[in-house]
Specification:
Blueprint lengths: L7 E5 L4 H12 L3 E6 L3 H10 L5 E5 L5 H14 L5 E4 L14 H29 L2 E6 L12 H20 L5 E7 L7 H4 L15 H14 L3 E3 L2 H10 L4 H12 L10 H4 L8
Parallel strand pairs: 1-2, 1-4, 2-3, 4-5, 5-6, 6-7
């Protein structure tokens, strides 16, 4: 398959973790790639992905800012090709009680998870609708289904994405553009290190593999499915969120995310890992 006949995918948060695994799946399906992240590791990811025989353009940008989104959309425009798949995966977390967080860091979670995501989708999806085809995958979370005690801002931002995905999907009904929301639970990435949550129960627990979560999301996107909850345990938690009162869900979340609630010893699966990807 030559480069001109290949489709183009844009993947954000693609330096490591779920995003990198999504980009790998795109490469396996012969998508050319534009990948983005806010760290230099995006260059390493691009070198790896290029070995698959596809074109891969790395963009280091901070999607928490309008300037970062513009840098990425400029790279997309420079490719002079339509985007066939947008995998909006970039995200940021933050643990501890809201009043114990740095306000600027809390706002950065909102700017990354919400502002950056909807700015990018607005730019790319408009062209998809005009062309009458395209696929969008948004990485939400089952965290968006429950009040996030000790993760209040993060869970709130994911609740927005979970809801936004469904609404956008229905707005684009019959246009040829599909929207899929990937809703993972705790996944083995650098998320919990970066969110300062390694001393929590959820941070020190065994977690899903990023490759498995990405495969669930990628397959659902290719089928045009609306939502996919990754993992049987997460499906049960998602079902519980629809019947349990918010107060019970908030207390349940406290047990998982309260600082100091974690195991004294790291689980074996975490100690043995040598790579440390993130969402």
């Amino acid at each position: 398959m030559n480069a001109t006949s290949r489709q183009l995918a844009v993947v954000t948060g693609a330096s490591t973790g779920i995003g990198l695994e999504l980009a790998r799946l795109c490469a396996q399906q012969a998508f050319d790639l534009i990948i983005a992240a806010d760290e230099p590791l995006i260059e390493n990811a691009a070198r790896e992905l290029s070995q698959s025989g596809v074109s891969c353009t790395p963009v280091q940008c901070d999607l928490a800012t309008a300037e970062g989104v513009e840098k990425l959309t400029s790279a997309i425009a420079a490719a002079a090709r339509p985007v066939d798949a947008l995998l909006a995966n970039a995200g940021r977390g933050l643990g501890k009680g809201f009043l114990d967080q740095d306000l600027n860091e809390a706002l950065r979670v909102i700017h990354t998870n919400i502002d950056g995501t909807i700015r990018l989708i607005y730019e790319v999806a408009s062209d998809m609708r005009d062309r009458g085809r395209g696929r969008i995958l948004i990485t939400g979370s089952i965290a968006g289904l429950m009040p996030g005690t000790f993760q209040a801002v993060y869970n709130g931002s994911k609740a927005f994405l979970d809801s936004f995905s469904v609404a956008l999907s229905h707005e684009l009904k019959d246009t040829g553009v599909t929207v899929t929301c990937l809703m993972p639970g705790a996944t083995e990435t650098d998320f919990f290190d970066r969110a300062d949550m390694t001393d929590t129960k959820v941070g020190s627990s065994d977690k899903a593999h990023a490759s498995d979560v990405a495969k669930n999301g990628f397959d659902a996107m290719m089928k045009g499915e609306l939502k996919v909850v990754a993992g049987l345990g997460n499906k049960m938690r998602a079902a519980m969120s629809h019947v349990a009162p918010d107060s019970a869900l908030a207390e349940m979340h406290r047990g998982m995310a309260e600082p100091g609630s974690g195991k004294a010893e790291e689980p074996k699966s975490k100690r043995e890992r040598t790579d440390r990807p993130r969402v």
